[in-house]
Amino acid sequence: MNLRQKLAEVRRRIGYIQKRGHNERFNYSYVTAADIAGSVGDILAELGVVIIPSLENITYESTAGRGETTRLARVVMAYTFADVDSGEEVVAKVAGQGLDVGDKAPYKAMTGALKYALLQSFLLATGDDPEDERVDSRLTSPSADRPIGNEEVRELEKLIGETGTEPERVLAYYKVASLGEMTETIYRRALEVLNRKLAKRGQRETVHAQD
User: What is the DSSP secondary-structure string of 55-93?
Assistant: First the structure.
């Protein structure tokens, strides 16, 4: 088999990736990068294909609030699928974002990029839809969470602008009259959804720039 035939064989062997990860804070399940890399990597190794990562670009942005600084890292990764037998290569470029109050933002961004590079390259089904912005009903129920502050509101406004999202649509989804009425729980969920949307938009822009 040539390289492309080997990559097609990976897809034939993998039908569905189960959600083994669980976010305790927001109580939802997700597919981990480790599960995807393990499932795909085992078959690639058997077929004699290796993946070589390369960091093409990285930028940082910091936001201070509530006594801590949140760091956002944006990366563009290039993953080279190389056939050890023939020397053939196929490159997939993917954007990724990571948000962390410590020093793990770039690693989260690269992990996210790898996850979606494998998911999209092999069209793997997980049951997740990054474009689904509907809020979980658990997050709209009354809770003891306090409303977010001005720093969080500004962060949301910035992401809404960068993603081209209609503010009214965000308010409708999260059932609030203004961004300032969001609780901490809903804010974190909205932040995650908007960052996913921004990462996907960045990926499309990267692909178009290469055309």
Answer: EEEEEEEEEEETTEEEEEEEEEEEEEEEETTT--EEEEE
What is the spatial distance between Cα 30 and Cα 9, in angstroms, rounded to a whole number? 25
Q: Which SS3 state, helix, strand or coil, does residue 206 take? A: helix
pLDDT at residue 27 tops 70: no
pLDDT in tens, 98-150: 888 888 989 999 998 998 899 889 988 765 544 444 444 444 444 435 778 88
User: Count of alpha carbons within 13 Å of 45, Cβ hemisphere only?
Assistant: 6
CA 28/CA 21 separation, integer angstroms: 9
User: Rounded to 5 degrees, what are φ and ψ at 47?
Assistant: -85, -5
Return d(Cα 48, Cα 11) in angstroms, integer: 15
Does this model's pTM top 0.70? My answer is: no
Radius of gyration of the chain (CA): 19
Half-sphere exposure of 109 toward its Cβ, with a 13 Å CA cutoff?
30
